[in-house]
Fold this sequence. Notes:
By secondary structure, the chain is α+β, with helices and mostly antiparallel strands. It has helices at 22-26, 37-43, 46-53; strands spanning 72-76, 82-85, 89-90, 98-99, 108-113, 120-125, 131-136, 146-149, 154-158.
Amino acid sequence: MLKYIGQSGCIPYSLAKMTFTEAEMTANKYGPAAGDEEKWQSELTEEQFHVLRQKGTEAPFTGKYNDFHQKGLFLCAACGNALFASDDKYDSGSGWPSFTKPVNSENIATNRDFSHNMVRTEAVCAKCGSHLGHVFDDGPEPLAQRWCINSVALEFEQKDGSGPKE
Ligand SMILES: [Zn+2]
């Protein structure tokens, strides 16, 4: 059995602002291309496949990038698309790697997610459609965004010229 918790995952600290119009709730279909799943299953680890392709969530405080402070770039573990910069990473206390913004607005797409009796905004890789995590509006100022991302969805690329490795 997989050890992931499907029930809560990244949860919003407040549901106060989570109301949407019917149009917003139906205009929500960004997903992976059909038929690729066998390929992904052979290329990804079981954990990666569960999170990235089946929208799973790793248990909090278990991911390799939760307590991680190296300088560099976080890439999509499925396709290598650049997603987040270490300069935008912060400690949200949620147990998942958290970022104040994506590395740019083109590389990440968002979906409304109505699973688990919550309304959340799902973050997906804009290149391959893989599930990354969720984004909430309770992050630090000035952007107030909290990108709550599964470590297993990320690969880390250390910044060149960052000095000798320890
Ligand atoms: Zn990707």
